[in-house]
Amino acid sequence: MFNRVAVKKQCPRIGHRRSMTRISALSALGCLLCFVNEAAQATPLEMPSPLTFEAGPLGTLNLQGVASGYGVWQDNKFAPTTSGPANTPATKSASADISNGMVIIQKNTGLVQFYLQAGAYNVMTLGSSYFSTGTFTQNTFGALPVGYLEIAPTDNFNVQIGKLPTLIGAEYTFSFQNWNIERGLLWGQENAVNKGIQANYTMGPVTASLSWNDGFYSNRFNWLTGALTWAINKENGVFFQAGGNMGHTNFAYSSIATTPLQNNESIYDLGYTYTGENLVVTPYVQYTSVPASAMTLAGYNGSQSTIGAAILADYSLTDKISVAGRVEYISNSGTAIDGAASLTGFGPGSHAWSLTVTPTYQDGGFFARAELSYVAATMPSNTGFSGTNGLAQTQLRGMLETGFMF
Description:
It contains three helices and 17 strands. It is mainly beta. It has a single domain, classed as Beta Barrel (Porin), CATH 2.40.160. The longest helix has 9 residues, at 28-36. It is globular and about 65 Å long. The relative contact order is 0.17.
């Protein structure tokens, strides 16, 4: 189940504000939201302005950071695993840990720029098991999850190389960058931090990005991803994202960050964003497929696919209080009888949906928020995804997260 967890991308509105001429490693959706309305109010966890300092030959640098922790309660806790740590937080009804302990240093002016994000972090996904923050950080992207060098010869073109956030998806990696504390069901099919090279170009209301990378952090450079966004006007925009493995990655490369089946997939996201004075809404659809050649090598029959849809929204009640919501649906093709695989974590032939509500309070650098989420799956008879017996087909979680940003 936990192999659906991955890590996402930087949020321009939360992680670091940059002009649209320096969109670079942002996701297509993040770029679109900034381009459509840089000053939109519906942006929870808005980071304070960065601290700036002179660094000799490096020029002027920006410094930001976040320190936060979470507490979680869940029904239908997960059973201990037979491989890896047996007593993980996911096997408990309640637990607490650090959610973010991050420092961000960046240079965003001049021909040569860079971005470094270091520290500890944890990523929790709906309907999935999870680890402690120390275990997650160590076994995914390490203490420097994102870091890249950027060459920006013009205001509308740049090239980056290093550990880059993916171009795919509508949610970001770290909890402080998102409307919700947990990532959603569709997020589990998307890749995350990539090692590779990426080119970005902006022409009027259109932004295009293209990246050659290692997909699900596999260290095998055979993935191609791209994103295209069009800001129709200040309130409406559309985005299209696509990516896939151009060859085949050996299934021996497997970790929390590198999920073998998804690392051989093709993925397509199509969405729309409305940005109003107090409201932002993003519906999008997603399709993924894993070819029969990859499935056969993994011991399964035929090709596999998923199809999903989600609506993400955030409404600002005041300049300090907002409420975010997310509704999702995802299905997994095939049946267990046909020898199909589980791409979603809910089993072949399954259908799952989720509902998440997250009220947020922020005053300057301080923030606090609560979250209630529910996941339900229709699965083959006598199977489940949660519970100590592994047969439960629902899970309810309550979470609290609080901390400081500078």
